[in-house]
TrEMBL record:
It comes from Podospora fimiseda. Coiled coil: none annotated. Keywords: Signal. This is Glucose/Sorbosone dehydrogenase. SUPFAM superfamilies: Soluble quinoprotein glucose dehydrogenase. Residues 1-20 form the signal peptide. Residues 46-386 form the Glucose/Sorbosone dehydrogenase domain. PANTHER family: ALDOSE SUGAR DEHYDROGENASE YLII, HEDGEHOG-INTERACTING PROTEIN.
Amino acid sequence: MMMQLSTACALLGLATSVFAIPATPVAPRHSPSSPQTSVIAVDFLQPWAFAFLPDNRILVTERNGSLRLVNPVTGAKGHITGVPTVSWAGVTIFGQGGLGDVVLHPKYHQNKLVYISYAEPGTNTLPPDAVVARAVVARGKLVLNNSGGGSLQNVQVIWRQSEEILGDGHFGHRILFHGRNDTLFITSGDRQQFDPAQSPTSNLGKIIRLHDDGSVPSDNPFFSSGGVTAQIWASGIRNPYGIDFDQQGRLWEIEMGPFGGDEFNLIQKGANYGWPIVSNGDHYDGTPIPNHDTRPEFNAPKVWWAPVISPAGLIIYKGKLFKHWKGNALIAGLGAQGLVRVQIYGNNTAAEVERIPLGQRIRGVREGPGGAIYVIEDGPGGRLLKLTP
């Protein structure tokens, strides 16, 4: 009961605060920015992620398995068919799973490949009301029609979590390409199983690195071990919901902690981030977990939060429209109900500097054409919004 109550508080934002507790000294806190907000499209059913096509139309995922095509001028929403069946717990802010991320291949102009992540229904026989699933990443060719929609064709799964798990928590499954090459990073949650995050024979609780076809790069840190182990780029991860590169080529990740202890991590090749052995939060029943500073062999977060912000997405801003935000991390906050801005410094440190309140649980954030920032609200009736100075 304690675990359920604490989880509900974190997801609803009841335990949030406007103050972060950083791993490094905080830079002077700025006055909150007030960007101009315009509505692009409305009434999505639990949207999770979105991506921009070259013609500025926007692909939006809904957790029930719908992939929508949005006209940013009119707000019209078409359908993209061909998405595989997903495991979805229904319209609730507490359940997870369903259709997740969507990204374009770096060479989309040539190959029209779109990558999606989702919770794949399990094959084990269990009672009818049980949820058994695993996160997968698939790709397909996007074929658009003249009616504002289209289809994903020749859809192929290129990666799966190594275990089917009972329950619908902690899938992670964010997707990120490394620049213009074919290297693909995937965040894989621990599925609330704890120990697999430290197991070299499980890809749960890990950052995964693959080629665009799902094969394993030979320069991965554990490539010589073969199997699932070869996929692993970093381990000791809990519930990773955001990942991005900065302009110096550093890889950053944001993840939900337990009762307290949300983390902003600098991801390094072969590193271990300690979950569930260490955390700056506690278990939901109140049982303490040793802090990162008790186990220096594990990489500690650069910023952590207690109370939590319930992070749900991440970009490192690279545009010019918000001049003072370039190089900053912008974190979509469910509990924070807005964006959390984190300054990243050249000595591999970081600190929160600002909250941008938006009044709703924010599920995803992307940098759009011209440097505008787009966010999508969580839950039934979620809106896609555009932020400008």
